[in-house]
Amino acid sequence: MAALNGIQMARIKASPIDYPDVADVGGRVRVFNEKITLAAQATSDTIAVARLPKGARLLYGMLTTDTSLGTSTVAIGIAGSTAKYRAAAVFTTLNTPTLFGAGAGVGEPLTAEEEVIITIATAALPASGTLRVMLFFSID
């Protein structure tokens, strides 16, 4: 049976040590915590929910709501790649934090600052309630 290492462990075990980036090993986790008041926002509308700095490494996102979004779908991403972090899908689970984080870019450093947006499709959002979007990331 082989004993293997991931990329960061291989760097730490090397002689001499090849120190990983702080954001990969031992970095501080930060959060952009956005609160959205639901007000029947229309399909094809976007809602800015975070600004991630250059070099940030998205670890995961979390959604929670006190009101079912019904048949409305929400995607989370950036302009030009609206589903970068979460593909368009319904969100009907109440008061239960739900993780998301799609794509090969999760955990990789951003080459430029990003404004993260929600894109609404299929149906308008509910007329009232609260949706919270939290993006957890590390940075050097």
Your description of this structure?
With 140 residues, the protein is mainly beta. The chain has one helix at 7-13, and strands at 28-37, 46-52, 57-65, 73-78, 81-90, 98-100, 114-121, 130-139. The strands form 2 sheets. A 4-stranded antiparallel sheet has the order 1-8-3-6, with no helix packed on it. Strands 2-7-4-5 form a 4-stranded antiparallel sheet, with no helix packed on it. Strand 4 (73-78) and strand 5 form a beta hairpin. The protein is elongated, with a radius of gyration of 18 Å. The mean pLDDT is 93.
Rg measurement, Å? 18 Å
Determine the strand fraction and express it as a percent band.
over 45%
> What's the rounded overall pLDDT mean?
93
Shape: elongated
Per DSSP E runs of 2 or more residues, the count of β-strands stands at 8
Write the layout of secondary structure elements.
Elements: H1 7-13, E1 28-37, E2 46-52, E3 57-65, E4 73-78, E5 81-90, E6 98-100, E7 114-121, E8 130-139
Antiparallel strand pairs: 1-8, 2-7, 3-6, 3-8, 4-5, 4-7
Summarize the structure.
The protein is mainly β.
Keywords:
140 residues; four-stranded antiparallel β-sheet; 1 helix; 5% helix
